[in-house]
What does this fold into?
Amino acid sequence: MSIIDLSVIIPIYNEEENISLLYERLTSALKPLDVRKEFLFVNDGSKDSSMELIRQLAEVQEEVKYIDFSRNFGHQIAVSAGLEYVKGRRVVIIDADLQDPPELIVDMWEKMDEGYEVVYAKRRKRANETVLKKWTAKWFYRTLASITSVEIPVDTGDFRIMDRKLVDILNRMPEQNKFIRGQISWAGFRQTYLEYDRDGRHAGETGYTYKKMFKFALDGITAFSNFPLKFATASGFVVSGISFLVILYTLIQRFIFKNYEPGWPSLMVSILFLGGIQLISIGIIGEYISRMAANIRNRPLFVVRDSNVSKEKVLIEDEAV
Ligand code: UDP
Ligand code: MG
It folds into this structure.
């Protein structure tokens, strides 16, 4: 029975220009590691020829595995599917566009040997990305860090290596709206990081549209923080307090000073302000409810059209034996 030491999960969405170079760089970077490896490509409904390229690779390379989704389910789900199918004792998650340097994996592997369960890669610099992307990412990670109770490292993507123990725990987490780096932080264990300079994309375009990024950000926040709900409640109290004072003032003016000129500006301001606060609060509650609804529906996270791996568990034999 084959035992795999290192599994590499590679989510793929329209990466035809990157796949062969990625595979080349991965295999040559990992050569110094004399361990049994598998490379699991998760094709997340690519519209280009990515899947054909992966199949061709799989025909000649036994260590190349793939899962082909029936449509685009999103990056986090592609990675989650990968986690369910891999069999390695240690697992790496890496982007296909060569923004995550495969050469770092060997360093991560060595760091793991010091007794860590997770080694993630922290971006020192980011090259060739738009100012808006860098700025939104920076702002998002810091806000998230300030409102969550789990410590989610800033400036970190999903590029990391982790122990099988972690993978088994992630596979038992049932939520539909995945925020994998948050789940990994939540799980605890000994985690550390290596720093690297993030390159730009080798070729092709980002699959993360601003719409997907926005959903991803909201998934992260709602899964790991109740701060927005508390904020809605708190602003409700503050606004009610102010409103109460204003009501008191109006009544005093009306009955004691008999001073009641028609004041539409104050009326408009208070109506608009209250309306705004109410809509925001309902919206926030809605974000949580829609996620609860998704979890109650409990649909499968993804649909596989084709694959050359089975999900059957390979028994990982005791290393000492
Ligand atoms: N990706 C995916 N599904 C998607 C979008 C992206 O599997 O819906 C993959 C993509 O092929 C890449 C990784 O996720 O391997 C990171 O995506 P991308 O480079 O487009 O994001 P960015 O680096 O711009 O944040
Ligand atoms: Mg990228």
Notes: Residues 95, 97, 99, 201, 206 surround magnesium ion (ligand 2) (CB under 6 Å).
